[in-house]
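Format notes (please read before filing issues)

Several people have asked whether sequences and structure tokens are stored in separate files. They are not. Every record keeps both together, in the order shown below: the sequence lines, then the token lines. Line labels are part of the format and must not be stripped during preprocessing.
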Amino acid sequence: MRTVRSRVMFFQAMSDPTRQKILSLLEKQERMCVNDIARCTRASQPTVSKHLTILRNAGLVHGRREGQQVLYSLNTRNLRSHLAGYFSRFSCCADLFHGLTDTQEKKS
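Then the structure lines:
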């Protein structure tokens, strides 16, 4: 089960518009390097790197080194798990995730 601290980190990571844009980019394109993300977001490379660190610490992106570059991808499993685990606690939202919980998500 997710801890309160991990959920707070998740929602803090999600609260920034630039990080939301980065997540959207990574959903559309499976793997991107910092420079490609910087170009698409019109942010500097150091700024994008800081945002990616926050997203990685929250478990929302993976980084994999390929040669000189680190390629980032969306961690869809953690994204679904966090959202399902949090929103399924509210009766008005529980049906949105069709019973998907943290435990069930870990098995898939």
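For reference, the curators noted about this record: DSSP finds six helices and three strands in the chain. The CA atoms of residues 25 and 37 lie 8 Å apart.
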